Prior knowledge:
Elements: H1 2-30, E1 39-43, E2 46-49, H2 50-65, H3 71-101, H4 108-122, H5 125-135, H6 139-163, H7 168-185, E3 190-199, H8 202-212, H9 218-225, E4 230-238, H10 244-251, E5 262-264, E6 267-278, H11 284-314, E7 317-319
Antiparallel strand pairs: 1-2, 1-7, 3-4, 3-6, 5-6
Amino acid sequence: MKSKKNFKIYLSFLFxxxxxxxxFRISIxxxxxxxxxxxxxxxxxxxxxxxxxxxLCKPFLEDLSQKQLPPEEKKKAIEEVEKxxxxxxxxxxxxxxxxxxxxxxxxxxxxxxYIKNEVxxxxxxxxxxxxLKAQGISLEEYKxxxxxxxxxxxxxxxxxxxxxxxxxxxLKKAYQEYVRNFKKVHPTGYQYVISLLKSKDEKVIKKAxxxxxxxxxxxxxxxxxxxxxSFIPKVNYLKRDLSPEVLKVLDALKPGQISQPVKIGEExxxxxxxxxxxxxxxxxxxxxxxxxxxxxxxKAQKFIKKLIKELKEKRYIKVFSF
Length: 322
């Protein structure tokens, strides 16, 4: 009898616990609390939940929602977005962890400066707040994301600048390639290379011309007149594309000389001749920096791809189905 009584007490206690758990679940479901979500990926000691993945995908999915796609095609597109965003999160997390390992840090000032530029690029604080709302995140959460992003950027920049070297031989080889490609894609013929000031107001152009006579550059004159004239630093024209009235002005000039004010169409111009002659590639000195940047970017992309691959092999990474 005693054992039956104890069993009844145990059952009563068990049902009480189950009722409490059931009530607790209902109360949470009815509240605004967010339950711990399903984990979709783990990198080292960091994990990403399904809810967080959906939040990261939100801006891309909103763009996708504007397109009229068949259901199956839309489903496939959403899966591609989720896969791509997840892969980006894994790679960024690996780089961030490695940056922390190297002791690289990002200050609050770095984050604030980045956000100031973002606000400016978006067109003001109202547009920025709208941007945050569209992504479904708070300013503080956005700052955390930016801090992680800047951390990864600093680490990659450090690695790239330490490991990548562009030699003079590589630059010369790149210039030879530039010359070969130039001859393939550029038309042959006689050309004029000029810079100019222009305005619809004849008085303004005459004023600009007087300033140029005092040995000021076209750029300086444009600054002095503060928006009254438009400055075009460099433009190329083939002789066959120019009207007789324009050719008359240009043929009267030697490289480095400036024309008197001239009316062409509805506008007034002052023209400086930079070069006239057969179409030809730019000299090495003028394209060296451009070639250097191009080579550096190419090497950097390959290096970063290799670096991330190596880091992935070292880290614990697990992706779960979702």
